[in-house]
């Protein structure tokens, strides 16, 4: 699908009618005076970057737990890559770049230590108390758990940024109030929306949509790069995906004697370019068909606007199948995942038995006599905030044996 280069945005200053307007934001839960030097979405982005939660991402797993090398992605480097792609898409589509970047930067705040392994373990432990969802935890962090400001808990982000955080993957409820396609509504999101309605049955802004598709583009590409570096993935395995096979042939033809490191980078940079250009072309086509004249028109369009073409969506599925079978389910990765899961399970039960062990947690002094469900939620908050390194170290302090994650 071809891109209409005549309507691309390159300067970063011009916004389309369908873009979110920071000067017409729906505001914040706690009203604040406007800034003389920054838009509302710039302020949100800056607040996100200065959080404790953002800094913790540098020691949280993306794919490889406790990697032996320093060059594998972490949650932080993944987040920065997502933000870069989101900003590029937003600029091309004449959206508000600061809002797109802010949603990208905050989207993984709620992830536990040890990646999806930690989340799966914590969700199972929290099933009797409403479960655990990293997206809902991200909302909980920015509306409650970050304790920096004198006048409110959380970051007091704008409605648009919170909406993008919660709904970047689509509506969470049907128009009649029933459950959406993503399953039961996490309790933290339900509770917050009683105070500040994020309109869960509508789609999110186009800025949030480009942040969501940027996440797919970034982790598909860097999981291939990290997989090749680890040795779990080979170029021969990538031949299983026709799209990647074509890119590799293109690089071999142009650079027949390229060393493996440069070869891998030439392939992955082409992968990102093709995926980004595909999203731009599809988004332009959908915008021409729908002709939205406001950000609200995007929300009520009834479908995602910024997404892959059918052909690229199939390629995306093929890449994920290779990554799942060759990396995520590799026996060595599964061994490490089992150990990481055990660390989370052990710590959860120990903290439930003795909340005073949660050193530094703001709610510890109020734990005595609270209902079990409330205690469990605060234990989940504490565990989810841990980095891989901190969780492993604390487990070694509290237990005689700690799983080897190397």
From TrEMBL:
SMART domains: HDc. The keyword Endoplasmic reticulum does not apply. GO terms for molecular function: dGTPase activity. Keywords: Hydrolase. PROSITE patterns: HD. InterPro entries: dGTPase (IPR006261), dGTPase-like (IPR050135), dNTPase_2 (IPR023023), HD/PDEase_dom (IPR003607), HD_domain (IPR006674), PHydrolase_assoc_dom (IPR026875). GO terms for biological process: dGTP catabolic process. It comes from the Bacteria. Transmembrane segments: none annotated. Residues 75-220 form the HD domain. Belongs to the dGTPase family. Type 2 subfamily. This is Deoxyguanosinetriphosphate triphosphohydrolase-like protein. The lineage of its organism: Bacteria, Pseudomonadati, Pseudomonadota, Alphaproteobacteria, Hyphomicrobiales.
């Amino acid at each position: 699908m071809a891109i209409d280069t005549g309507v691309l945005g390159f300067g970063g200053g011009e916004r389309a009618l369908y873009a979110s307007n920071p000067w017409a934001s729906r505001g914040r839960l706690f009203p604040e005076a406007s800034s003389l030097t920054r838009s509302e979405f710039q302020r949100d982005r800056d607040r996100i970057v200065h959080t404790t939660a953002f800094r913790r991402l540098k020691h949280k797993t993306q794919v490889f737990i406790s990697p032996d090398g320093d060059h594998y992605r972490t949650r932080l480097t993944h987040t920065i890559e997502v933000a870069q792609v989101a900003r590029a898409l937003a600029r091309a589509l004449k959206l508000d770049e600061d809002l797109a970047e802010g949603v990208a930067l905050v989207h993984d705040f709620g992830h536990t230590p040890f990646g999806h392994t930690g989340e799966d373990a914590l969700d199972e432990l929290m099933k009797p108390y409403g479960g655990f969802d990293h997206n809902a935890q991200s909302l909980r962090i920015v509306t409650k758990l970050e304790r920096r400001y004198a006048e409110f808990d959380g970051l007091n982000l704008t409605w648009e940024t919170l909406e993008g955080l919660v709904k970047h993957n689509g509506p969470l409820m049907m128009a009649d109030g029933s459950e959406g396609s993503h399953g039961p509504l996490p309790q933290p999101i339900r509770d917050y929306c009683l105070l500040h309605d994020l309109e869960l049955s509508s789609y999110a802004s186009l800025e949030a949509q480009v942040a969501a598709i940027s996440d797919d583009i970034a982790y598909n590409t860097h999981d291939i790069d990290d997989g090749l570096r680890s040795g779990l993935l080979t170029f021969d395995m990538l031949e299983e995906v026709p799209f990647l096979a074509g890119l590799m042939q293109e690089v071999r033809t142009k650079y027949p004697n390229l060393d493996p490191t440069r070869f891998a980078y030439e392939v992955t940079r082409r992968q990102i370019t093709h995926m980004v250009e595909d999203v731009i072309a599809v988004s332009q086509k959908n915008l021409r068909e729908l002709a939205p004249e406001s950000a609200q028109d995007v929300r009520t369009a009834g479908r995602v606007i910024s997404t892959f073409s059918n052909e690229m969506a199939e390629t995306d599925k093929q890449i994920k199948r290779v990554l799942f079978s060759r990396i995520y389910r590799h026996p060595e990765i599964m061994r490490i995942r089992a150990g990481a899961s055990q660390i989370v399970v052990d710590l959860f039960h120990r903290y439930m038995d003795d909340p005073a062990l949660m050193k530094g947690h703001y709610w510890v002094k109020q734990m005595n006599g609270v209902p079990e469900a409330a205690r469990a939620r605060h234990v989940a908050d504490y565990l989810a905030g841990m980095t891989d390194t901190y969780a492993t170290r604390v487990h070694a302090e509290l237990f005689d044996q700690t799983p080897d994650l190397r």
